Amino acid sequence: MSFSDKILRWYAENKRKLPWRSTIDPYKIWLSEVMLQQTRVAQGLPYYEKFVEAYPTVFDLAKASEEEVLKLWQGLGYYSRARNMHQTAKKVAEEFNGNFPNTYAEIVKLKGIGDYTASAIASICFDEQVPVVDGNVYRVLARYFGVDVPINSNQGIKLFKELAHKVMAKENIRDYNQGIMEFGAIQCSPKKPACLVCPLNESCKALEIGMVNKLPVKLKKTKIKVRHFNYLVVLDDFENTILEQRIGKGIWQNLYQFPLVESDNELTQKMLLKSLPDFLHGVKEISLFNEKPIVHKLSHQHLNTKFWIVNIQEIGPDGISISDLKKYPVPVLISDFIESFNF
Questions:
Q1: Cross-strand bridge partners of residue 194
Q2: What is the pLDDT of residues 170-226, one digit of tens each?
Q3: Which residues form the HhH-GPD domain (predicted)?
Q4: In the Cβ-directed half-sphere of 120, how many Cα atoms lie within 13 Å?
Q5: CB neighbours of 96 closer than 8 A, spacing ≥ 6?
Q6: Cα-to-chain-centroid distance, residue 164
Q7: Rounded to whole angstroms, how far apart are CA atoms 159 and 88?
Q8: What's the CATH number for 3-214?
Q9: CA angle at 35 for the pair 178 and 14, rounded to the nearest 5°
Q10: In the chain, what are the domain boundaries?
Q11: What is the pLDDT of residues 84-95, one digit of tens each?
């Protein structure tokens, strides 16, 4: 029995019941693939269900405001995915009359869609003979063929795409591609893979040479940057506060936050008072909410965060009611603070 036949048989017997498995609607497949990038199924599933309920069609998503989309996405992370998804929905709705392109070559041209997502949509929805290569597939192929070329190197990306072509099913590519991804997630998992009952164990090179736990190989990540954030939670006598929108190309683009003072090192209250923005005049009292900085870890950054409670008499026209805070899309770091602080 061939590699692909074993994957197909395993998938038929072991696949999880997931809502996007019962459809070939490219809109819903696209939603699921975007949400599951760098996200576990358990975390992504409730977001998928919320988005399908709120935006049943690509036209509904296209008509939504970016702020609404970001609010619904809140907590899922990597917010550029949501912004790109919204832009692509507009393009598909306006330029393609709601119909997704039906070939890999055209799908991959859409904003926020790379090789993997385009391959998944083309094969699952349109039965195109293209293999998918995601993190799960990299792991399966690296172990099966005993390949120690880094999966995130240029050489590795090219090599694993070739291997994926070599072993893919010539028929039923839809189930095969979903099957090999599922196989990597469940059977050939990152830790404690079930090698003893694996249908590929007789021909798995990594198992043969004792390299299962060492493959796949990945180039070391870039150095983690440490940043110091001081959020100013401004409160006035009329139950108003201040939020500002993050702009530019940095983290959390277009999300909202409390006014921010970023520093090279941890600030004391005395140091912070010298760095207060000009609009904060007439400060009555300032106090630190968390004595120990909250360390918020992103992929390449660690944010050492302090929340400072700043009391003033009146904020003025730029203030928003505290009761409206939860209407704004904010990073999970801010959301967690809002939940924990007794406004």
A1: none
A2: 989 999 999 999 999 999 999 999 999 999 999 999 999 999 999 999 998 778 999
A3: 35-186
A4: 27
A5: none
A6: 24
A7: 30
A8: 1.10.340.30
A9: 30
A10: 3-214, 225-340
A11: 999 999 999 999
CATH topology of domain 225-340: Nucleoside Triphosphate Pyrophosphohydrolase (3.90.79)
Instruction: Supply 44's token pair.
Output: 């992504």
Sorted by sequence, the CB contacts under 8 Å of residue 62 that are 6+ apart come out as: 86, 89, 90, 92, 93, 94
Looking at the DSSP bridge assignments, the partners of residue 285 are 311
Residue 321: phi, psi to the nearest 5?
Answer: -70, 140
Q: How confident is the model at residue 277 (pLDDT cuts 50, 70, 90)?
A: confident
Dihedrals phi, psi of 36, to nearest 5 degrees: -90, 0
The 3-class SS string of 173-205 reads: HHHHHHHHHHHHHHCCCCCCCCHHHCCCHHHCH
> pTM, whole model, 2 decimals?
0.86
Write out the two tokens for 45: 């599933």
Q: Which two tokens stand for residue 298?
A: 């992103």
Q: Which residues contact 339 (CB under 8 A, 6 or more apart)?
A: none
Is residue 101 a contact partner of residue 277, using CB atoms and an 8 Å limit? no
- The residue from 13, 33, 182, 239 that is catalytic is 33
Q: Which residue from 175, 198, 174 is spatially nearest to 186, judged by alpha carbons?
A: 198
Active site residue 244: no
Collect all residues with Cβ–Cβ distance below 8 Å to 5 and sequence separation of at least 6: 169
DSSP 8-class letter at 325 = G
> Which residues are bridge partners to 233 per DSSP?
309
What residues are paired with 294 via a beta bridge? 305
